[in-house]
Design goal:
Helix content of chain A: 25-40%
Largest sheet of chain A: 7 strands, parallel
Oligomer: homodimer
CATH class of the largest domain in chain A: Alpha Beta
Number of helices of chain A: 14
Strand content of chain A: 15-25%
Radius of gyration of chain A: 19 Å
Order of helices and strands of chain A: EHEEEHHHHHEEEHEHEHHEEEHHEHEH
CATH architecture of the largest domain in chain A: 3-Layer(aba) Sandwich
Largest interface: A-B, 30 and 30 residues
CATH topology of the largest domain in chain A: Rossmann fold
Number of strands of chain A: 14
Distance between the termini of chain A: 10 Å
Number of domains of chain A: 2
Structural class of chain A: alpha/beta
Amino acid sequence: MRSITVLSGGVGGATFLRGLLHGVRRGLVPGVDSDAEVTVVANTADDIWLHGLKVCPDLDTVMYTLGGGIDPERGWGRTAETWHAKEELAAYGVEPTWFGLGDRDIATHLVRTQMLDAGYPLSAVTAALCRRWLTPVLGDGVELLPMTDERVETHVVIDDPESGPEGVERKAVHFQEYWIRHQASVTAHAVVPIGIEDARPGPGVVEAITEADLVIVPPSNPVVSVGTILGVPGVREAIAATSAPVVGVSGIIGQDHVRGMARQLLEVIGVEVSAAGVAEHYGARAYGGVLDGWLVDTTDAASVDRVTAAGLRCRAVPLWMIDHDATADMAAAALDLVR
Amino acid sequence: MRSITVLSGGVGGATFLRGLLHGVRRGLVPGVDSDAEVTVVANTADDIWLHGLKVCPDLDTVMYTLGGGIDPERGWGRTAETWHAKEELAAYGVEPTWFGLGDRDIATHLVRTQMLDAGYPLSAVTAALCRRWLTPVLGDGVELLPMTDERVETHVVIDDPESGPEGVERKAVHFQEYWIRHQASVTAHAVVPIGIEDARPGPGVVEAITEADLVIVPPSNPVVSVGTILGVPGVREAIAATSAPVVGVSGIIGQDHVRGMARQLLEVIGVEVSAAGVAEHYGARAYGGVLDGWLVDTTDAASVDRVTAAGLRCRAVPLWMIDHDATADMAAAALDLVR
């Protein structure tokens, strides 16, 4: 097996990818060449313009994580980061103040914004940024592709926390505002990926899926990460068409997410918060869904039969990504499931 | 005397202004009300776009200096500054790497750039930034006006340091490149304030000159700071028309500048590097120039007669701005000269 494509969001996907690459390069994933190509199709629907800068949280989390620049404690942003520009923006009274724009991170956004302003598509900008981060560390075998070059922005319809006494009003806010400012703690009613109907898959995205030997859906958010990638017209068709097996790893263990806020967002779209519920939501390729196989955590071993009944191969293995070896074992189990 | 207008560049002008305000507010400048308004018309011809950000070095030096945010050692940029974004931009291989864009400073440029992109003129943007820096410290009595809202950029024609063996070639570089990258140490042939013919004085600039009780030309660079302000069509006419006396303070002491690189630039435009030489260059208002009076340092007492012969009142007093009191004394002497 020479090429693997992963549909990734931010922290969960990036952590999985780091373990996958660790395993592949060290020959720990049976059936995969140690120099296999790994292509990441990353969610861009939580991108946001802040202070005139184009910020792409998932692209950057993957890039910094694989390139060794991530802050390992936070899981996002740069290591050895400072926050002086952010402090000063707040001192000017400029909104928003809730987004953590670090000083080192700003350089990435400056380069990206300037290239976009010069007319380069996001895919070309991402490739340029990755020449600093990925090429020196990983060579040319890892490619990071935005799901689309078009602007797609997930908004969440929430109960406005500033509603007056005359009743709760709803408003739509950018996903980042829901996620970071409100910590997903306000009541949400709908998730709307604005612009997605008119988006086209970015250069190489369809080919990365149709020409892969294996497609993996990592434990990223099924709604606002993987869900938006799948929502780009043409991506589901590519997944339906590929001869590669498609295998997913549950980010839900027990009745909650491992990290992030998948629980809240699954509730918004009416999907049961469980490994089996998410498997049914993705669905089996044989029945018009996107997966051939699904790994659940050993905690959820009892749900294997239910997932199997939905037409998916399923196995319960440890899914806590406690270190790169554990994650590599997950990747090996995923591949073994659909081989 | 209730209103003073100062035509300022960066460090020299800002230092003078700080001492002037110190003196005025404490009643140390005889004849000037302690709550007199001080209007600064600042040079914008060394403004530069860097990494997609609009940087206005002279406006910011005045703003930070008067607002207490300046780094007192360097004389420019922010106190307690860090340089992480700059490091990262260099790590991306993005040019230019020779300009010192500090992390705190970047916030100012982000706010400015975003407001300019939103359609506000530089004068409105400057007023907004000054509401943070000047109003809390100095009240409403100090106003900072860009000389123009139009884009003017001083370029310097230099011997290209990268000329090949077949001979020295000339090229035009942005003033900041000459100043910071080359430290004014390459041979320069001409100073060209690009766009100045089509520039108009910024809002309030002409009135600040014609309605002032006193106009001061501080020890700023006569070529690339004061020279460009005077070069904006309408400014010389305002100076000719004002009923206020116009008095200048020499930034040349002995045969060299006190700070900066005025010597090099005076040589480029063929002006003798001396207090008297600069006085003759500015010229007496009575003969079509811009000054009524000119202070020279005690070192240059011998040149008082020559300056007087050029039609200017002149006196030799200590011109080293060693502290705010010394600078306030200079301001008092300047006013005394032309009262």
